[in-house]
């Protein structure tokens, strides 16, 4: 969340930022409530002082009548204090709800507008291929080679769930190994994170764990939720902790399953593996000093590009427009892979993203750092980035690496784990 004092000192700026990001937030109402709360708090403190004075004077009363009168006065003062405290609690709850809904500030270079106002920053080393034969999408190819069973997944858990089979399983495991090998070589600490997290951790990271707008699966009768990304668990890993300045930046990567309700998602663009309720992801996360976060953000983007260049997948990187930023993000870059089976002539589809969240999450999670020789502490900056979301990476590989005979080439960097160069061939399909 943003610092309260900053909000109150910059009401118009914060409101303009909320509007640019499409947030329905009344910043003036927050300021009004904060003023009311502070005024009432002073009144409560004054009533408490008076009640204490009356309480001390009871023993000095001359007779029972005076003693009873002072007791009654003390009781009235305490009741008045309690009534105002109840007002404060109600006002504070409303103010807190508004405060938590105010998004992060926005990088001045981020494009302003709706989702379509993104700016393309760069393209990958490989250009979209000219197939020269009828292109199949990943669903058709997966059926042809028995790689994914959507029907069985639906029988077990409903639409949006699936079984990976045969070489798709080997590709998933290979993608995990490929990403982890690169990140460990870059100094990331590898982790396998819990798939569940408490509501306060989700709220601290910026997700809505309950309510009609949530995309989160919650566990009934428990304050636990299935995580939508390892960003939640990695961000919450150091909640309430204080780093020493010299220990930053700290780079982590985490493997987790990810669960999303994907309410309202539909259409051909969401077909197959693109928008599912469960998938595996390797996530990058960093805790940094404030002056390190922008460089770390660019570094995360470079790593994502390195991963997909290594796979030989065509892609572009976009600077996400303000109207498409999540609440915690100061700036976000999306890496969109070319998917030749998507749309009539192929389209780009998001496969990874990386966000600089500055101190927005650390304020909510109370994650700080101390500077040697200085009093007090400061909030760290947090950053997250997808190394590889397996389901969408599989789409990009299957569709871009399809061949005229119906087979699928395995990216060279994955072959040592998959154990083969190619999935299927026309001869094998005829034999089958």
UniProtKB/TrEMBL annotation:
InterPro entries according to UniProt: aa-tRNA-synt_IIb (IPR002314), aa-tRNA-synth_II (IPR006195), aa-tRNA-synth_II/BPL/LPL (IPR045864), Ser-tRNA-ligase_type_1 (IPR002317), Ser-tRNA-synth_1_N (IPR015866), SerRS_1_N_sf (IPR042103), SerRS_core (IPR033729), tRNA-bd_arm (IPR010978)
Q: Where on this chain does L-serine bind?
A: 229, 260, 283, 384
Q: Name one Pfam family in it.
A: tRNA-synt_2b
**Class of enzymatic activity (EC top level):** ligase
Residue ranges of every copy of the Aminoacyl-transfer RNA synthetases class-II family profile domain listed in the record: 137-411
What are the Basic and acidic residues biased-composition ranges?
60-84
Q: Which GO terms describe its cellular component?
A: cytoplasm
Biological process GO terms, please? seryl-tRNA aminoacylation
> Any idea of its EC number?
6.1.1.11
Q: Where is this site: Important for serine binding?
A: 386
One GO molecular function term?
serine-tRNA ligase activity
Which residues bind ATP per the record? 260-262, 276-279, 350-353
* CDD domains recorded: SerRS_core
Region feature Disordered, mapped onto this chain = 48-85
Q: Which domain of life is it from?
A: Bacteria
**Which keywords describe this protein according to UniProt?**
Aminoacyl-tRNA synthetase, ATP-binding, Cytoplasm, Ligase, Nucleotide-binding, Protein biosynthesis
Q: What is this protein called?
A: Serine--tRNA ligase
Organism this protein belongs to = Pirellulimonas nuda
Organism placement in taxonomy: Bacteria, Pseudomonadati, Planctomycetota, Planctomycetia, Pirellulales
């Amino acid at each position: 969340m943003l610092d309260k004092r900053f909000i109150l000192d910059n009401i118009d700026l914060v409101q303009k930022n909320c509007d640019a990001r499409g947030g329905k937030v009344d910043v003036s109402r927050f300021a009004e409530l904060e003023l009311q709360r502070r005024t009432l708090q002073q009144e409560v403190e004054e009533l408490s002082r008076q009640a204490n004075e009356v309480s001390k004077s009871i023993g000095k009363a001359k007779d029972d009548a005076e003693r009873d009168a002072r007791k009654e006065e003390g009781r009235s003062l305490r009741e008045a204090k309690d009534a105002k405290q109840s007002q404060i609690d109600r006002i504070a709850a409303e103010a807190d709800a508004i405060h938590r809904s105010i998004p992060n500030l926005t990088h001045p270079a981020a494009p302003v507008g709706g989702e379509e106002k993104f700016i393309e920053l760069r393209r990958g080393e490989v250009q979209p291929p000219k197939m020269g034969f009828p292109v199949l999408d990943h669903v058709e190819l997966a059926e042809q080679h028995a790689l994914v069973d959507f029907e069985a997944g639906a029988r077990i858990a409903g639409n949006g769930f699936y079984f990976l089979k045969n070489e798709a399983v080997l590709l998933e495991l290979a993608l995990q190994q490929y990403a982890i090998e690169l990140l460990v070589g870059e100094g990331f600490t590898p982790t396998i994170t819990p798939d569940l997290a408490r509501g306060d951790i989700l709220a601290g990271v910026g997700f809505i764990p309950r309510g009609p707008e949530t995309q989160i699966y919650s566990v009934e009768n428990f304050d636990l939720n299935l995580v939508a990304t390892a960003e939640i668990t990695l961000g919450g890993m150091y909640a309430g902790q204080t780093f020493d300045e010299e220990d930053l930046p700290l780079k982590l990567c985490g493997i987790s399953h990810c669960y999303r309700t994907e309410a309202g998602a539909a259409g051909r663009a969401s077909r197959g593996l693109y928008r599912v309720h469960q998938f595996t992801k390797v996530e990058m996360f960093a805790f940094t000093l404030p002056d390190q976060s922008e460089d770390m953000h660019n570094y995360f983007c470079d790593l994502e590009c390195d991963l997909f260049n290594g796979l030989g997948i065509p892609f572009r990187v976009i600077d996400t427009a303000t109207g498409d930023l999540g609440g915690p993000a100061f700036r976000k870059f999306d890496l969109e892979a070319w998917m030749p089976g998507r749309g009539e002539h192929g389209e780009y589809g998001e496969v990874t993203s990386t966000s600089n969240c500055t101190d927005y999450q650390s304020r909510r999670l109370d994650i700080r750092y101390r500077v040697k020789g200085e009093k007090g502490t400061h909030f760290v900056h947090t950053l997250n980035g997808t190394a590889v979301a397996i389901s969408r990476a599989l789409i990009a590989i299957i569709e871009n690496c399809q061949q005229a005979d119906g087979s699928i080439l395995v990216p060279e960097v994955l072959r040592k784990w998959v154990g083969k160069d190619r999935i299927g061939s026309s001869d094998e399909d005829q034999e089958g």
